[in-house]
Amino acid sequence: MADNYLERHQEEYELKKRNFLRKKKHLPKVKHCPPKPEDDAL
Description:
By secondary structure, this protein is mainly alpha-helical. 50% of the residues lie in helices and 0% in strands.
Protein backbone atom coordinates (compact mmCIF):
# COMPACT_ATOMS: atom_id res chain seq x y z
CA MET A 1 0.00 0.00 0.00
CA ALA A 2 1.16 3.49 -0.73
CA ASP A 3 0.46 4.91 2.73
CA ASN A 4 2.45 2.23 4.65
CA TYR A 5 -0.69 1.14 6.50
CA LEU A 6 0.58 -2.37 7.24
CA GLU A 7 4.04 -1.22 8.32
CA ARG A 8 2.59 1.36 10.70
CA HIS A 9 0.25 -1.16 12.29
CA GLN A 10 3.05 -3.70 12.60
CA GLU A 11 5.13 -1.15 14.53
CA GLU A 12 2.18 -0.34 16.81
CA TYR A 13 1.61 -4.04 17.40
CA GLU A 14 5.26 -4.62 18.28
CA LEU A 15 5.22 -1.69 20.72
CA LYS A 16 2.05 -2.93 22.45
CA LYS A 17 3.44 -6.45 22.62
CA ARG A 18 6.73 -5.23 24.11
CA ASN A 19 4.89 -3.19 26.77
CA PHE A 20 2.60 -6.10 27.61
CA LEU A 21 5.50 -8.51 28.06
CA ARG A 22 7.40 -5.99 30.16
CA LYS A 23 4.41 -5.59 32.50
CA LYS A 24 3.85 -9.35 32.60
CA LYS A 25 7.39 -9.98 33.83
CA HIS A 26 6.88 -7.66 36.82
CA LEU A 27 3.70 -9.31 38.06
CA PRO A 28 4.02 -11.42 41.20
CA LYS A 29 3.86 -15.13 40.58
CA VAL A 30 0.79 -16.85 41.97
CA LYS A 31 1.27 -20.32 43.37
CA HIS A 32 -1.71 -22.59 42.90
CA CYS A 33 -1.94 -24.95 45.82
CA PRO A 34 -4.74 -27.48 46.16
CA PRO A 35 -7.34 -26.76 48.87
CA LYS A 36 -6.75 -28.55 52.12
CA PRO A 37 -9.31 -31.32 52.72
CA GLU A 38 -11.34 -31.02 55.88
CA ASP A 39 -10.72 -33.86 58.33
CA ASP A 40 -14.10 -35.50 58.96
CA ALA A 41 -12.55 -38.23 61.10
CA LEU A 42 -12.32 -36.01 64.18
